[in-house]
Write a structure and sequence with these properties.
The protein is mostly helical and 126 residues long. It has helices spanning 11-19, 23-41, 49-68, 71-86, 90-105, 112-121. Helix 1 runs parallel beside helix 3 (49-68), helix 3 packs antiparallel against helix 4 (71-86) and helix 3 runs parallel beside helix 5 (90-105).
């Protein structure tokens, strides 16, 4: 099955829907935009795990929860990260490491305040 026949990457989408119901609205919005774009340009559509990780998990759930100080959601988000890192999918583990963990470590990342907050909550120091 190629990417055009399979609109969702799968594993990240399912994990987010199951573990973080807060992701549902953002996910549906992103998927609808992808469908509309595909209809307009006549191509198939596909949303990657990477897009779900950044556009839904980080931008719509995790970072806003950190900024609000919503520890309950932040802890569930970190549990989702742990689950993805412990899973059998090497490509997903690499994506989580590349797109999420790097942001948490890198002070020059898009959201250094988030990285600092999470590091301090986890008792990590530089």
């Amino acid at each position: 099955m190629n990417a055009q026949e399979r609109p969702f990457a799968g594993s990240v989408r399912e994990i987010l829907l199951e573990r973080l119901p807060e992701a549902g609205t953002a996910m549906r919005h992103m998927e609808e935009e992808a469908r509309v774009f595909a209809e307009e340009d006549g191509t198939g559509w596909y949303i990657t795990d990477h897009e779900y990780l950044i556009d839904v998990f980080w931008d719509e759930v995790f970072e806003p929860a950190v900024l609000r100080g919503d520890d309950e959601i932040v802890v569930r988000c970190l549990g989702v990260v742990d689950e993805m890192l412990a899973g059998p999918d090497m490509e997903l583990r690499d994506s989580v490491h590349h797109f999420l963990l790097r942001r948490l470590r890198d002070d020059s990342a898009k959201s250094p305040h988030v990285a600092g907050w999470v590091r301090s909550r986890l008792g990590l120091t530089d």
